[in-house]
Amino acid sequence: MITISQMRRDDSHGILDVAGALTEWFDIDARKRAIPIDLCFQEGYVAKDECCIVGFITLYVAEGRVNIGWIGVHPAYHRKGIGGDLIAAAELFCRENGINELATYTLGDSVDYAPYQATRAFYFKHGFQIYQRSQTDNPGCPEEIRIKKYIRI
Fold this sequence. Notes:
- This protein is an alpha+beta fold.
- The chain has a single domain, classed as Aminopeptidase, CATH 3.40.630.30.
- The protein has helices at residues 12-20, 28-39, 82-96, 114-125, and strands at 2-6, 43-49, 52-62, 65-73, 101-107, 129-135, 143-150.
- The chain has a 7-stranded mixed beta sheet with strand order 1-2-3-4-5-7-6, sandwiched between helices.
- Strand 2 (43-49) and strand 3 form a beta hairpin.
- Helix 1 runs antiparallel to helix 2.
- The longest helix has 15 residues, at 82-96.
- The radius of gyration is 15 Å and the shape is globular.
């Protein structure tokens, strides 16, 4: 049975193990530098199968929104509703803190890359909409879309 619980500092090893299994989504810089640093400063939730972390979502507040820093589910657990459960936990975090927007950004749809086609479909399925597009000078992410959904509080 999968359970969702608030992220604790000692969950970082399990979160990094999940991130390490998601090489199609998280490059080496994300896995080895950015996620470990962000885990020290962001809040969030983990999905556990018994005592093993199989998914995570990190959150931070900026610009009057709750922002998703990172979200990932171990590939062996894809398509089981865990990502949706993590989004639901983030929505609850929004409600508990009186914030009516949940946002993130991802690779834009002008880039033909199957893992991120699935990522965008996941977010759109959960009610996110594009509110900004931008071109970047990052060859790994030449177009970025910012997406958000409104949360009834």
